[in-house]
Amino acid sequence: MKKLSSVVCMVISFLFFHTAIAQSSANTGLAFETPWVRASAPGQKNGAGYVQIQNKSNQTDRLISATTENIGRVELHTIINENGVAKMRQVQGIEVPAGSGATLAPGGFHIMFMGLTEPFKAGELVPVTLRFEKAGEIKINFEIKPATYNPPAAGQNAAHKH
Ligand SMILES: [Cu+2]
Predict the structure, then answer these.
(1) In the chain, which ranges are continuous DSSP H helix?
(2) Cα 109 to ligand 1 centroid, rounded to whole Å
């Protein structure tokens, strides 16, 4: 009898697992507005990606990682103010609240592309796979803007240096 109940347990967890997969591949309710990175300055090995994530669903989600094919390391970062000095810090995730969303913008959260093998060239695209706790993997293209580009709705434009 004990054996049977553990088999039943396995079947049930198997069913739950598959239900979860199906939900994440369905319409996620997430929308992405103007994903962009700035063109690299000469010799620059890192770049930051910004995007406005809208969550139109009634479930709070969380961006947990980002990857891209040709760049070795991609991290999620924020900027904190330590004694008047803006410093970047890696974060384990970025919350995307239900009914609103999350803003990745200069001076705050960003996706950090590290150790670029080729510079970001204005006009090209960086294909990125975003991984969310609930929505799963979503691929979006970040547009490379000219080095002089400043988004119209940017907050304070903190120095961005490694
Ligand atoms: Cu950073």
Answers:
(1) 2-25
(2) 8
Ligand 1: centre distance to CA 48 (Å): 6
Q: Residue 69 corresponds to which tokens in the numbers above?
A: 């094919």
Expressed in angstroms and rounded, the spacing between residue 31 Cα and the centre of ligand 1 is 23
Domain 29-145 has CATH 2.60.40.1890: yes
CB atoms within 10 A of CB 132: 21
* Domain locations in the chain as residue ranges: 29-145
User: CB of 156 within 8 A of CB of 89?
Assistant: no
Q: Are strands 136-145 and 30-38 parallel, antiparallel or unpaired?
A: parallel
Ligand 1 centroid – CA 9 distance (Å): 44
Tell whether pTM > 0.70.
Answer: yes
pLDDT tens-digit series, residues 24-63? 334 789 999 999 999 999 999 999 999 999 999 999 999 9
